[in-house]
Amino acid sequence: MSRTHSPDPAATAGTPAPPDGLHPLPGGLGWTVDDRSLALRLLADQRLGVLEPGPVMAHLAAKVPADVRPLVEDITAFAEKVMLQTGQDRHQVLRKAFGGFFDADAIAAVTPGMRADARDVAGRFAAAGGGEFMTAVAFPYAIRVGARLIGFTDDEYRRLHKLSQRLALVAYAARLDDPAEAVRAGHAALVRVRGIVAAARASAPPSSVLGAWHAGTVPLPDADIEANAVMLVQASLETVAGMLGNTAARLLRAPGALADPERREAVLDDALRAEPPLKTLERVVLEPVVLDGQEFRAGQIVSVRIAEANRLDGDAVAGRALFSFGWGAYRCLGARLARHQALELFGALHEAAPDAAVAEPETETERVRHIRFDMPRRLPVVCSPPRRDAAALTRALTEALEEDDVDRRLTSLEHEVTQVVLKENGVLVPGELRGPETIREWVTWAVPAGG
């Protein structure tokens, strides 16, 4: 595929045009890159790093009253500990400390829980006859797995995600009419974040990030672990949910693909290549670089357009490798886990709803409008609710409750046991359900309703 770009006015004045696939940002701020070879070399170059928070926050501190500056300093100290926002040497230290949560052994250890989560989410979706995939499957499953990995409850994870978004907005406060108020709001969010993390740490499962921290087995200062536990919340929601949604939009349009494990994996790769959930990778030039005759000046931003850089176009550079999880020193630590997470979900979806399909396959998928993320905004999916065997459910309940009278009113404890037994048999009971009082009534509800 050929690529074209508008003539650079500077080139007409005697300055050589930039290489194909490299496009200047306004005001000399930097470059966007959509060429695979150039993206590979730039992302792997140690002379490029990430934009660290120090300079941005120092500029902000100069614009707020003296009494607000300690809040800016506290926020800055927190942000500087995040591995995705720190220099390469420090990044490697943090990466090594957290790497054990994402290696092959760790993934094998969390797979049973992940599979149970996938079956639970897919089972609820199937029991309802389908629904809106993003809100009923992609986001709940991403939250469940992310929360389990880090050591939060689903509710704690959701609250932390919202608070961390509010905290992240402080980076833009200098552009606002009242930057001091934005700093105060951001710092209040940080205080709440720290409270949630501290409370969760004490009761977190031993195998989780917070559990290992509580046990003293993460070789880092407390502040480093705290900041990166919150970073993992931010990093494991939109990107994972977007990956799941983009894959589902393709997989559930292809007849027979959901039933074939090899095709499921191939469609996942296709979605990651063509529709990566994160649109761009940003780097900052730390010292001057010259590639293909083009100078990249220190301080300039390099923004790689991931979908374009993923295109193969007959170019043998890096084989079929994907940039969707980053490249080089800052490649996503959870890339392998994310792929495994997706395959577990679609395997569970095939078990629970083998005929699941996009509701309107001829209609183009409605997508979110976002500067950073690319994913479906809505993805309606339909499937046949599972059939229930009334006799089998009755037998399971009478055996578990040791009760042959199917018309006796059940006690509150027996209702709890009933719901557990129904769940074990693929019937998911909504929390707001009221009505069934006997074994017969529970079976009558479960069979026609499909759970």
Automatic annotation (TrEMBL):
<dbReference type="InterPro" id="IPR036396">
    <property type="entry name" value="Cyt_P450_sf"/>
</dbReference>
<comment type="similarity">
    <text>Belongs to the cytochrome P450 family.</text>
</comment>
<feature type="region of interest" description="Disordered">
    <location>
        <begin position="1"/>
        <end position="28"/>
    </location>
</feature>
<protein>
    <submittedName>
        <fullName>Cytochrome P450</fullName>
    </submittedName>
</protein>
